[in-house]
Amino acid sequence: MKYAIDEKGYVSIGGFGQNLRIRSTDPALPVILFIHGGPGVCDRHWVLKDQSALAQHMTMVCWDQRGAGLSYFRRQPEEDMTLDRMIEDAHEVIRYLKRRFRKKKIYIVGHSWGSLLGSLTAKRYPQDVAAYIGMGQFVDGDENETLSYRFVLDEATKRNDTKALKELERIGWPKKGRYASMDDMMVQRNLMSKYGGEEHGKSDGIIESVVIPILKSPEYSLLDLWRYYKGAFFSLRTLWDEIVACNLNEMIPDIDVPVYLTEGRHDQNCPPSIAEKWFAALDAPRKEWIWFEDSGHSPIKETPEEWRKTVERIVAQEEAICPTAR
User: Fold this and answer.
1) Do residues 115 and 149 make contact, with C-beta atoms less than 8 angstroms apart?
2) I want to staple 287 with a disulfide (CB 3.0 to 4.6 A). Which of 135, 224, 259, 293 is the partner?
3) Within a 13 Å sphere around the CA of 231, how many CA atoms are in the beta-carbon half?
4) Which residues contact 324 (CB under 8 A, 6 or more apart)?
5) How far is C-alpha 173 from the geometric centre of its chain's CA atoms?
6) Which CATH architecture best describes the domain 5-141+224-321?
7) What is the signed CA dihedral for 97, 287, 40, 29, rounded to 10 degrees?
C-alpha cells in the first residue's frame, strides 16, 4: 500500500518531546488517535500490523504516552506521572492533530488503561472529540481486579493447577484493586493470560503475548526495547494506585460525545460485565455496544478484520452526521 504519510517523530507535548507514529493514504481523511493500555504498554507495533488497511479510510495516529515506549526518558519526573497530567497530554495531542490536519474534531480509540484515559479526556474536552471508541473498557478498578482474580482462581481450581494455586494463595486477593507488589500483580496477569483471559483461545504467558511481538516488530529497534521495558514498569509503578482507585460510574455518568464500546466476550483482564452496567446508565448523544464473540481483551488484533470493518462503519456513520473536516 502506498502511503501519503508514514512517519515517526517527536512533538512537544506537556513540555517535552513525545513520540507519534502517523500513517495515512490521504491527509484529508478523518483522524483517529489510538490511546494504548498498560499503563506503559505501547501498541503501535500491532495496531499498524493488524490494522494497516484502516489507513485507506483514516489517518492513523499511535502515541507513546509520557513515560512509555519512545516517550520514556530516564530523568522523567515521577511527580508528573498523574492521571490529570495524562489527560492534559492527550488533549494536547488531539489539539496538535486538529491543527496539523485541519479538523474540527478527532476520533479516539482507548484500549484497557487507554480506555480510562480516553473516556476521561472525551468527558473533559468533548468539543474536540468526534466519537469515543472503547475496547477492554476499564470502569471500576476495585471490582475489575476482584473479578479478574476470581477468574484465575476458578480456572486454576478446575485445572487442578497446584503450582498456580500455591502462587495465588501466596499473593492473596487484591485489596481495593491493589496487590502487595507489582510482582504479585504480574503473577495474576501471567496466569490470566495463560488461561485464555487475555487472548481468547490462547494459552500464552506475558512473554509470548507481549514481549515477543515487540521483538519481531520493525516499530522498535533493539535499543528502543530497553526504553520500552523500563517505561512499562515506570508507568505502572507511578500511575497504578491512582488508576485503580477510579470508578467511571461516579466520574462519568454522562458524556457529550458518541460512545461505541467494542468488547471481547471473553475478556478477563477488564471483565465486560462491569462496563455493561456503566454503559447501560451512561447518558450520551449516541451509544452502541458491539460484542466480538471470538475475542478476549483485544478484538483489534484477535479479530482484526471484524474490528476494522466495525470502526470503518462507526466513522462513516459519524461523518455523515457531523463531518470533522473544516
Assistant:
1) no
2) 259
3) 24
4) 30, 31, 103, 104, 105, 106, 107, 130
5) 25
6) 3-Layer(aba) Sandwich (3.40)
7) -30
Query: Mean pLDDT throughout 47-53?
Result: 94
Dump pLDDT digits (tens) for 104-151: 999 999 999 999 999 999 999 999 999 999 999 999 999 999 999 999
At what angle are helices 182-194 and 162-171 packed, to 10 degrees?
150
Which residue carries 483517529 as its cell?
A: 32
Report the C-alpha gap between 273 and 286 in whole angstroms.
20
Domain positions in the chain are 5-141+224-321
Contact call for residues 117 and 141 (beta carbons, < 8 A): no
Could you give the CA distance from residue 31 to residue 98 in angstroms, rounded to a whole number? 8
Strand runs labelled E in 165-233: none
Whether the pTM exceeds 0.70: the reply is yes
User: Cα 316 to the chain's mean position, in Å?
Assistant: 22
278 vs 249: CA distance, rounded Å: 6
Q: Classify residue 211 by its DSSP letter.
A: I
Condensed to tens digits (0 to 9), the pLDDT of residues 229-238 reads: 899 999 999 9
Residue 316 C-alpha cell reads as 462513516
Distance of CA 136 to the CA centre of its chain: 7
Residue 240's nearest CA partner among 176, 150, 178, 322 is 178
